[in-house]
Write a structure and sequence with these properties.
Length: about 120
């Protein structure tokens, strides 16, 4: 069964929220020197970035074109790196993504969801 555009937008929004939460957990673990905690939190961040990329890769172009300022291809590309080229992951890039890119992405996803695209994914 195929997921609707609204489902995929919701998946991406939830994954953004979880990635941000995991980043807070990573910072807390790092502050107390909890190496295992930082590793688990970093893995949670990567997992949620993967979900974001996967959900976005399936959105129809007609939907993503409504938010032209979002680097949709870069988001999908990060998913590919996490999934296929994991050895190329650069933690500082992941951190910068969390710090600078997820809030604007979330806002764009919420706007798209509110616009009610209701188109089946391609």
């Amino acid at each position: 069964m195929s997921r609707s555009v609204e489902d995929r937008l919701g998946d991406a929004i939830s994954a953004v929220d979880r990635a941000i939460q995991a980043d807070g957990q990573l910072a807390a673990a790092a502050e107390v020197g909890d190496e295992a905690g930082t590793e688990v939190a970093f893995d949670a961040i990567l997992h949620n970035l993967f979900i974001i990329g996967e959900a976005i890769k399936t959105l129809p172009k007609a939907v993503t074109e409504q938010e032209r300022g979002v680097p949709w291809e870069d988001i999908a590309g990060m998913r590919d790196i996490i999934g296929h080229h994991y050895h190329r992951i650069v933690p500082s890039i992941i951190h910068a993504t969390i710090e600078h890119d997820l809030d604007p992405l979330r806002a764009a996803l919420v706007r798209l969801l509110a616009s009610g695209p209701s188109q089946a994914p391609d």
